[in-house]
Design a protein that fits this description.
By secondary structure, this protein is mainly alpha-helical. The chain is built from 6 helices and no strands.
Length: 137
Amino acid sequence: NLTAEIVTHKWETFGLRWFSRCFVHQVACWCCAAFVCLDDTVGYSPFRVGARICLLTLALGYLATFAALFLLCGNNEQWFLHMDFSLFYASANKINFWQLLVVRNANELMLMVLLALLPPWYAGDHVRHSRFYAPVW
């Protein structure tokens, strides 16, 4: 029971607080991405531009912080050295890096940034007239 008490104490003092912060951050990014993609006002829309700036700031800040923490602090930690980094053929007896919640959140944020950068009202003519753009968008 000592291990359970230690884990519970760490969750209550550290984990729950950071989980809540990451959750609120993710929901804010979801809302901003929805505003950017669903506001189809022709021309300039201050609400859409504000949501786009907010999304790009929040998402790119999260991605930069995640990358800096991993590269500066975590890349030589034993936890990460013994992980499985394969994308398609995950090892059954190792934790897969790409299945970590923080990494999945970063992947979602990268997709939201792409959505904010490439809607039809922001994409240039070269992108908009690509044969792959219309079916994907």
